[in-house]
Fold these 4 entries.
Entry 1:
Amino acid sequence: MLIRVLTALILGATIAASPVVAQQPLKVATEGAFEPFNYTDPSGQVVGFDVDITNAVCADAGIKCEWIRQDWDGLIPGMLAGKFDAISASMSITDERKKRVAFTNKLYQTAIRFVGAKGKLTDATPDGLAGKRVGAQRATIAATYLAEKYAKSDVKLYDTQDALRLDLTAGRIDVLLADEVATQRSFIAKPEGSAFAFLGPEIKIGDGIGIALRKDETDILDRLNKAIAKVRSDGTFQKISEKYFPGFDIM
């Protein structure tokens, strides 16, 4: 009898610790500075594709999401420190990141591409950009790619996409490397980016974009994976994607 009581108490404590079962909000962090995937509206709320698609996934899984803003390079450290429970910030699933955190199955996938002034550069290979000033946001797959492939370039890293683009428009770097869809929608298509264009082919790295969790959150991971499969197959994903990325296929 005592063993059964102790077992029930242990199981009860385990259930209470789970935000999913206890219906406590799942605290989800995002950068809030990567339009149109995640950004901050005039009221101070985080909005964008990452927010909408993650809310849809959470709703299907029976989870309430509570959104928190966090600078990009503090996302993984903050989650591991217990400041929040999950990350949905256009974070690519890579082997290096999987050493520290768990990822859901792929939500979507985009490519990274070089961007430079129209007509100035035509070769985006390592030799073509040798000696050139090349920028990327730190702690991104673009930064890792430059470190691995572009040793002949003068690589400069930035805390935010805004700072990266500002240095490109000011002529302090020759090219940048960043997410293709975000760069097209929030830079090239706008007046400040009209003098710039993509350079070279698309570069796809990793296994797509996922929601990151601590490795011990196996129950939440399983629920989110089932919901992702549903949202990607029942038309919900396509509807939200078309709202933000008409003409782009990011499945």
Entry 2:
Amino acid sequence: MPALEAAMAWLDDHVDYEAIASGRHPVPSLGRMEELCALMGHPQRTAPVVHVTGTNGKGSTVRMVTALLAASGLSVGTYTSPDLERVNERLSRNGEPISDDELAEVLVGIAALEASSGVRPTRFEALTLAAFRWFADLPVDAVVLEVGMAGRLDATNVADGVVAVVTNVGLDHTAVLGPTRRHIAAEKAGIVKPVSTLVLGETDPELVPLFTAQGPARTWLRDEDFGLTANRLAVGGRSLDLRTPGAAYDEVFLPLHGAHQGDNAACAAAAAEAFFERPLDEDLLRGALEDVVVLGRFEVLRRNPLVVIDGAHNADGARAAAAALDDLAVPGDTILVVGMNRDRDAVELLEALGARRAKRVVATAAPWVRAMPPEDVAAAATSLGVDAVGVPDIGRAVATAVEAAGPGDVVLVAGSLHVIGPARKALTDH
């Protein structure tokens, strides 16, 4: 569509810090966002916000919160990043991505604002502004925002969340955020505002005070105020016993793989209860969670051989993916297709994925500046004593792994979400 092509060309002409190698970012600032939001009449204030951050699990938690609010009858705008296949995925209403025409129209509006104000946003800031504008114009009843990185100076943080969710704190983006979990927690704590109910999934006693020091209206701490009393493996997902401050829900089916998704569901249920300031109807909660779909997060795309894709891009995420794979108890061998960014420790990530137990590693790379060359990933796998081959093209890498797999084997595609998107397209186009 010509209108969208022109709008995307304008968008892509803006600096994209997502595509800049870690350590080369300028000092971040919310100044541009604050100025442009003010000129737009503060669209980020037109609906109450659930703001979600965390090293891992924030995307899944956002999808679950959206499902719970939408099942309650609300029109819910959701903003996520990055996209897997199309930028439209980042802006959605009740789970449905923005149309091409609507995306083109809202980006044209942001371009006009840039021209009239002389304030040039980054690519991510422009998309965030577009989301706020679209949600205000629809309008929606609630907004669920996924932080792009950290929180304090993230473009989404011009909004004040009535609920602020922190799934967990791990080591990621250390070159930008700082070398320790305390540094990272301090940045994530920036989304907590005086109006917020803080739903805190991170329980490390050394980190909790960094969040509560922000002065939220209320704090709900996992394993004290909400959490899981049971998290069982079930056919096609998990069976959960959930507890929130106001209710308990037993044997709730979640069609997502991995014990970590149970923790995300607990955060989501608490966030929805905090948003409504009352417990959710049990049938509503069950129905919403039973229908949750999270693309690219331990998503099973084929069987015989089993093919799974997972955006495990850091060590904690990789360990969670390996544990979810163990839960499946696949009788055959594992073949890994792995691509990652240059700022990763390839050996650490491969070990976390369980590469030492794999039959083979097929190393690949996304076609962008931050991608680690496939030969470097393959060399790291070889250093672990694993048979490895480098295949630069992602679609060809996936095909190579699938062709080498027997009926009882499993192919796990993992690493950067910029690898997962093209891999998903290659697997679903046939």
Entry 3:
Amino acid sequence: MDIISYLKDFKKIHLTDMKSVELMNRIDKKFVFKSEKLPKLLNELSKFYNILEVNGNTIQEYKSLYYDTEDRTFFLKHHNERVNRYKVRFREYVGSNLFFLEIKCKNNKGKTLKKRIKVEEINKSLNPKQLDYIRENIGNDLNLTPKQWINFNRITLVDKSFSERLTIDLNLTFSNEVKSDNFNKIVIAEIKKEQHMVSKFVRIAKKHNIYPTRLSKYCMSTIKLEPRIKQNRFKKKLLLINKLNS
């Protein structure tokens, strides 16, 4: 599918325009659907959203290495629906040649808080400065090791009033040292806003029978890579993902 041809009608913006929609403290809402629905969606979205262009590209490549404890503390807290739960990852923004150590927290008010520091590259071990940064933000001294890579392509849209960011992720692949898999037939879209506000995307998605779905790329890929891990609370979501990805 030649997605690029469906992006030509969007007005281009650049990284310098993105300051007002960094949204490091935000409300998220995710949507999952078959990739075949994406072209029609993009045609309708172009009237209401601008598109981020980086070095001439409107589709960016992201590579992420996720960390967790040996007994999967972060995964299990998400599975058990704990609040104030974390994810720790290195992320490479390939088109920008930027690398960050990122910490995401889902707090007890339903908001996603994201903090990050710039790094030179992705390493499979955390240096003392990075460990201190994690400890300061999480509050615990955890023994973290790299668990899996999650890579995808992303289209980033910003509404015309610059109050909402809409990311559209496709070509999702994931791997650890022994196994690899993918969700290549699905799209994961996510609205990111400072507060609950009406979104044009929600209205357009509803026309195409696309509805909000709480979903974690990290948790779903963990289950696919380690099928024996505890997963009973994720079964309905996994059935949905498998159906959409078939």
Entry 4:
Amino acid sequence: MVTMATHSDTSGTETTMWAVVRECYGTPEALRLRRVEKPVASDDGVLVRVHAASVNRYDWYALQGRPFLARAEFGLLKPKTPLMGGDFAGVVEAVGRAVTDFNVGDEVVGCGAGAFGEYVSVRAGVVRKPAHVSFEEAAAVPVAGVTALQGLRDHAKLRMGQRVLVNGASGGVGSFAVQIAKAMGAHVTAVCSTANVERAQLLGADRVIDYTQEDFTRSNERYDVLFDVAGSRAWRDCRRVLEPRGILVMAGVPMANSVLGPIGHIVRMRIGALLARRRAANFMCRVTKDDLAALADLLEEGKLHPVVERRYDLGDTAEALAHMGEGHAQGKLVVMVR
């Protein structure tokens, strides 16, 4: 558990806030809950009072500073910022003078640096939250939802009626991929463990394969898209289940190397696809306002249902990160801030 730091300045309640911070790379034990300077709304942005935030694999890697190549973004010797977190849902506290599409009091969802805190300042990465969706459900959507959306829509070029297999269908990205593929009119096969078979069925999968009982790469089924979140199979395995014009989209790759990270796996898969004259794609999602709006529409229409596995208080964010680091999170981990 993150220990609550004492704060003797009783006059700073309007200019400071509670936030989870770290001064160096390391394990979740490096995290502290402290009072820091409260951000302000930029001229073209909004200040949001955070009600809930969610944990992503990116947060785990940022905490550790891994892989080393990523420190060009994170900071070479120490983090560029002590703040952590990205996904959030909350209420607009203030708006910049150039902002015309939000008002104080609007309930919003988005992605912005420092979401593991009471307030976050954000520019483009924010949209209105559907009224019937709770803050904790909305906070679970941004990065995982955009990753699934961009992978299927932009990289797989998924079309209605195509067959999709989601390998790793029980995690945050995978559970969204199952639902988004269904919303796009695809026939969806989900691969997950025994404990998550029923959940995958409830999310809309047309078929669910329990990988502890069946090897999906040894079946006679062929797919137009293999959406790989688990990153657990070699190219020769993936090739067996792809249609001749099918595509492998890598949306999750194992961090096998602390220096190069997933690059080795990606290169092997891309070379394998090239030699076999097949298609393989990998990408890093970029959260945009338009894509957040598209996900908000799916939430509004009832076609997207976030799966929240566990909820944590802000002071227990270290526990949430530790659970994420174990690699067995089923659905999303949400930090309740307010």
